[in-house]
Design a protein that fits this description.
The structure holds 2 protein chains of 2 kinds.
Chain A lengths: L1 H15 L16 E3 L2 E6 L5 E6 L10 E6 L2 H9 L5 E3 L5 E5 H18 L7 E5 L14 H14 L8 H11 L1 E9 L5 E10 L2 E7 H10 L5 E8 L3 E19 L2 E17 L6 H25 L7 H8 L4 H11 L5 E10 L3
Parallel strand pairs in A: 1-5, 2-6, 6-7, 7-8, 13-14
Antiparallel strand pairs in A: 2-3, 3-4, 8-9, 9-10, 11-12, 12-13
Chain B lengths: L5 E2 H19 L12 H18 L10 H39 L8 H16 L2 H26 L5 H5 L3 H5 L1 H12 L12 E2 L4 H34 L3 H8 L1 E2 L3 E2 L2 H31 L5 H20 L1 H39 L1
Parallel strand pairs in B: 1-2
Antiparallel strand pairs in B: 3-4
Helix pairs in contact in B: 1-5, 1-9, 1-11, 2-8, 2-9, 3-4, 3-11, 3-12, 3-13, 4-11, 4-12, 5-11, 8-13, 10-11, 11-12
The chains are: A alpha/beta, B mainly alpha.
Chain lengths: 353, 358
């Protein structure tokens, strides 16, 4: 009897949740929360940080935007939580967008904030915004979250250039100190489009890989993507091909314990998607190979000029020759910028149907 | 049938559950071996199997008693009690660190993290008041739940692995492996506390094979887990993360169906904490009885759980201290205590043999 009474009493104290020696955890009410899908950060002229977050537009409801300013990211995000008519939750952020001035210097802060806070998922995508202030995106009726979701879907399907998750970016930054950040820019209509890859090394933004060099960089990183390129045959006739990359292999040549050179071979298959069957396959093949080789070479030249192994060539070479990993890792830093690299393109052509 | 008795299989399941969940949280912090850390459990495997082989040889028919009683017999009433007191104190340290670990994992921004830790402790005290067989049986059920959860993690994490982060090992990392191996052994030594209620474990012929299988399962799954963590974050980032396992789980999910699994896993891991606490509380009950010379009573379990909750709450306030305790005190102290336990075990067996010969 006594025991039962004690149990009931204990239960009452626990349920009352008041004035017990420790406060009970409270569950969050999801209905009262605005779920932000995008968190964007920029550095202002006075050095403070400004974050803008947006929910996704659903049905007839427009996207809502919340703003916070603070000396640090945690402070700014904290302020933005209670900036609107609803409390903002960042537990379902799918995209992180950072502006140029923020990224040089503050990228490690972003990583530490996201991983220590633990609210954001490590699989959120990280994007860099080029040549535009954040305000241009957060205009009324715009839906930046929806737009980024389209870009992400393209990257995942291999039709666009690959995106980058927070986890992969932080791992790359911690391992090699450099990352290639997918960079977006608003076009004339104000929609975000893929522009280039930003080269980040030791926390600084060193430059961009644009256009074909961006494709070259994605190929160097061993990504599997497909894209369409057009070629002119006999001066007049145009042929379009869908090219599928099957990944790159990076083979290091090591002689007497010294890293001599790299051989990078890229496997591609092409499928004709426009223009009637080309008769002169050999000429077409030569053109494609020349162009892809050029893309690879340009990307690697630009990266090596900055001495930034942002496509993880070292690890790819290491996986090819794991027994020489010690040699490779030891000599890479000083040899990378001047290492002779030979590019090979293996192409399999299909004439389509 | 004596309901206080459990089988070797049940005892090992209890250990597997307790040590695996502890390992998932504490092992990634053993950073000295870098990317080679996942090899440490695999290297540990032959050592433990050899140890088990030596331990079980010629013992199949011998009557088994609690290690505490054996110590009293071999080391005399004073020496034996002092030794038991020492192990009791170390057990209390383990219990406190376990409580602090559980509280820190379940900490939320609002409310006290101690609430859940207190809940788990209360539950384990309740189990420790009852029969050992009932506690062991429930651990068998928990074990299945966690096994399914881990299988899910494995399937979802595999596609995200970067082999370059785990397969390429530098000489310095391989050289640091023995040190990581010792730390691992130190962490696993908490499992030896099962010896203090060895008298309640009944033996059969096929037990040795079961033991081999369970120990292999524990170490292989720890190795796989480290492989997944290091492969998805890289060794350099793993060092910076506070709870890499849960952060890895947080990133898993099937988009559109379910995401953000870390809360679920933090909660599931409470089952492992429960097994760990139950192991320590049953051992503490027996040890207290041996030290005081009285009959075993559930009051000692209540006392230890209460004290551990208090000490754990105190420890939780100093995060730096907790970290030092988990990364230095636990592996190194565990190694020493484990080694001492094994030496004493060997001594009791030699002592018994000489008695039998006379």
């Amino acid at each position: 009897m006594k025991r039962a009474l004690a149990l009931v009493l204990l239960l009452c104290v626990a349920l009352s949740a008041c004035r017990v020696p420790f406060s009970l955890p409270r569950a969050q009410e999801p209905r009262g929360l605005a779920l932000a899908g995008l968190l964007a950060a920029e550095r202002q002229d006075d050095g403070s940080l400004r974050v803008l977050s947006a929910t996704q537009a659903r049905g007839g409801e427009a996207a809502r935007v919340y703003e916070g300013i603070g000396a640090s990211l945690a402070e700014a995000v904290g302020r933005s939580r209670s900036a609107g008519t609803q409390t903002v939750s960042y537990a379902h952020v799918e995209h992180l967008l950072v502006e140029e001035r923020f990224v040089s210097g503050s990228l490690p802060d972003l990583f530490s904030f996201c991983f220590q806070n633990g609210e954001q998922s490590a699989e959120a995508k990280l994007w860099l915004l080029r040549d535009a202030p954040l305000d241009t995106l957060f205009v009324p009726d715009a839906d930046p979250v929806g737009r980024l979701a389209v870009l992400r879907a393209g990257g995942e399907a291999g039709t666009g250039l690959p995106d980058l998750s927070l986890r992969a970016a932080a791992a790359g930054w911690a391992e090699h100190g450099c990352v290639l950040l997918p960079t977006l820019r608003p076009n004339e209509a104000g929609e975000l489009v893929f522009d280039s890859y930003g080269i980040i090394k030791d926390g600084a933004l060193l430059g961009y890989l644009e256009g074909e060099t961006a494709v070259g960089a994605a190929l160097l990183a061993g990504e599997e993507l497909h894209w369409v390129e057009s070629f002119a045959l006999d001066g007049e006739r145009r042929v379009s091909l869908r090219l599928f990359s099957k990944g790159c292999s990076v083979r290091p040549l090591i002689q007497k314990g010294v890293l001599k050179s790299l051989i990078i071979s890229c496997r591609l298959s092409g499928e004709q998607s426009e223009g009637w069957a080309a008769e002169d396959l050999a000429a077409l093949r030569a053109q494609i190979e020349r162009r892809v080789r050029w893309e690879l070479e340009e990307a690697s030249l630009l990266l090596r000029a900055k001495n930034a192994d942002a496509t993880a060539l070292l690890r790819q070479a290491g996986l090819r020759e794991p027994w020489y990993w010690e040699t490779l890792a030891g000599q890479w830093e000083e040899r990378f910028a001047t290492l002779p690299i030979e590019f090979e393109v293996e192409l399999r052509l299909d004439q389509g149907t | 049938m004596n309901y206080q008795m459990i089988s070797v299989r049940q005892a090992l399941t209890l250990l597997l559950l307790a040590l695996f969940t502890m390992g998932t949280e504490l092992l990634p912090a053993l950073t000295q071996a870098g990317a080679a850390l996942w090899l440490a459990p695999l290297l540990c495997l032959p050592l433990l199997l050899l140890g088990l082989n030596l331990f079980s040889r010629g013992q199949a028919t011998a009557e088994r008693r609690d290690l505490g009683d054996e110590l009293l017999r071999v080391a005399g009433p004073v020496g034996g009690r002092l030794l038991c007191l020492f192990f009791l104190l170390w057990g209390f340290v383990l219990l406190t660190l376990g409580t602090a670990r559980c509280a820190a994992r379940l900490a939320t921004a609002e409310g006290s993290p101690l609430f859940f830790a207190a809940l788990v402790l209360a539950l384990s005290v309740w189990m420790a008041r009852g029969k050992l067989s009932a506690a062991a049986r429930s651990c068998e059920i928990f074990y299945r739940i966690l096994a399914v959860a881990m299988l899910g993690v494995l399937l979802m994490a595999l596609p995200r692995l970067s082999p370059g982060y785990v397969l390429l090992l530098r000489r310095a990392e391989l050289v640091a492996l023995p040190a990581a191996l010792l730390s691992l052994l130190g962490l696993l030594s908490a499992g030896l506390y099962v010896l203090f209620f060895a008298g309640s474990v009944s033996r059969r012929e096929s037990d040795t094979r079961t033991a081999y299988r369970r120990v292999s399962l524990l170490l292989v799954s720890l190795s796989v887990l480290l492989f997944l963590i290091l492969g998805s974050f890289g060794a350099a980032l793993t060092q910076k993360l506070e709870r890499p396992f849960f952060q890895m789980v947080a990133a898993l999910g099937v988009s559109g169906a379910f995401q953000r699994l870390e809360a679920l896993f933090s909660a599931l891991w409470m089952l492992g904490d429960l097994a760990f606490f139950v192991l320590l509380l049953f051992a503490a009950k027996r040890l207290t009885a041996t030290v005081t010379g009285r009959k075993e009573s559930a009051k000692s379990a209540v006392f230890f759980a209460g004290a551990a909750l208090f000490a754990g709450a105190l420890l939780g306030r100093y995060e730096g201290l907790l970290r030092v305790c988990q990364e230095i005190l636990l592996p190194r102290g565990g190694l020493l205590v484990g080694a001492l336990l094994l030496v004493l075990l060997f001594w009791t067996r030699v002592g018994r043999k000489s008695v039998e010969e006379q």
